[in-house]
């Protein structure tokens, strides 16, 4: 587990909050120093960042590599869109509703998925991702078909407050939601760290000690579904339109890629990596049209070979390497015989 | 263990006293008509098996006799294809491993298993998770019992085989089982560890029922008061430990007669 979130009783405790305050500080700086393009671009990356947190949670805590989190993501997104189009534009209400629908969707799918392991889960979740796109395209009354839903009203933070239409306020809002949801995820994972590590490490032993392994995994999957649903709400808030392509295989693959690059055992790392992945796809590849998938593929291969454990493992690997280099450079003590030589 | 060839055996009824079986029905673990096969290969076909609180019941037999399968069926890690299992008068045939463990059926594994991501102490904590507010014995006491106090903070994955087996036993005991299933607990232990194992098993509470699957006959002789001999998945012989060990056919087939050294103890 990479981050812990106690209340800041002292400076030592406050230091633990710094990693969580950094994204907020960066977003504030970006909003203050930049024009509308960059805040809008970064804000639109954050739904995928939160989806990557959900994928990394299922992958790390439950040990189930999955592409299927786009289903609760889609459920949360369409719930938010429909609520907004029906005139319910309060963001907190939309976020809670999306989280609930996402949890229910993930809970239903989890009944099938958590009974399997490794590649079987991956294949089943691939089917879930494809079925999500197909369902979204065919369920016209909800999704608007392949044309999608557009003209979705902007959210309002509180009753009577103006709608969040500006790029800069939206960046701050999206960053706050992403950081809060990630921090809440980490807090829950930290509290159940021992149990989840044990279950993931040895299911037979855990079951023989009375732990209902499948139930635990289902709870993780369902909880991660709530996060994915929240990410779906954020997608509507930042984009204000949605098509079935936004909740398809491409999105699922990007989220899983972010989890791999960020470090499958670190949901915050996956969020950072999601921003990096989208940065490569949408910004770095802008001058090289049509080659974004090639760049992403290269990034994936580089991450697998050069960053085992992902970005979050880099500091530990660096420390180990520095210690190793220092140890090899340290001069060996002179042999006892040479010291006796006059 | 070297064995002589034996033709497929017929069902031999258990010689257990009906009163003991009734006591097991009410307060212990009883299996009736257990059958399990892998494709067409029958691995277990047992008409009855009963153990009451306080019993020390060893199950012996050659490799492939169905001993471990019997433990898997009783623990719930494998579902019986036919048959009924009752525990304290309640049918548990369809119950899973975790439910049975919480109900009081604990086990160790033939290949000792640990939680690779946890420390030794945390492994024991996980074993007693459901009793953590009212433990019989605290995790550190259990580690002291199995001689692993000095390894409490070490990662469990770094333990050698013998220590893993001891840790497996401590984890099982942390669950405060009423029926303890031991799958070859002496396998791969050094003489020192074996002595400690016998000490531990000898001090288990009187109300605990123990089913012991073991090839090491010193352990069986020291612990068991009733022995069932399995062959080709069926009961070949059963009876009080002294009778079984004195039986010439069993001695010839499974105890290796007198030339097998420690395996035969009159």
Number of domains of chain A: 1
Cα end-to-end separation of chain B: 18 Å
* Biggest sheet statistics of chain A: none
Low-confidence stretches of chain B: 1-6, 258-266
**SS-derived structural category of chain B:** alpha/beta
CATH C-level of chain A = Mainly Alpha
C-alpha Rg of chain A (nearest Å) = 22 Å
Largest interchain contact: A-B, 17 and 30 residues
SS elements, strand count of chain A: 0
Question: What spatial order of strands do you see in the largest sheet of chain B?
Answer: 6-7-8-3-9-10
CATH topology title of the domain at 1-104 and 206-266 in chain B: Rossmann fold
Task: Specify the helix fraction band of chain A.
Answer: over 70%
As a percent range, the share of strand residues of chain A is under 5%
GO molecular function (chain B): ATP binding
Biased composition (Basic and acidic residues) (chain B): 7-20
Protein name (chain B): ATP-binding cassette domain-containing protein
Family (chain B): Belongs to the ABC transporter superfamily.
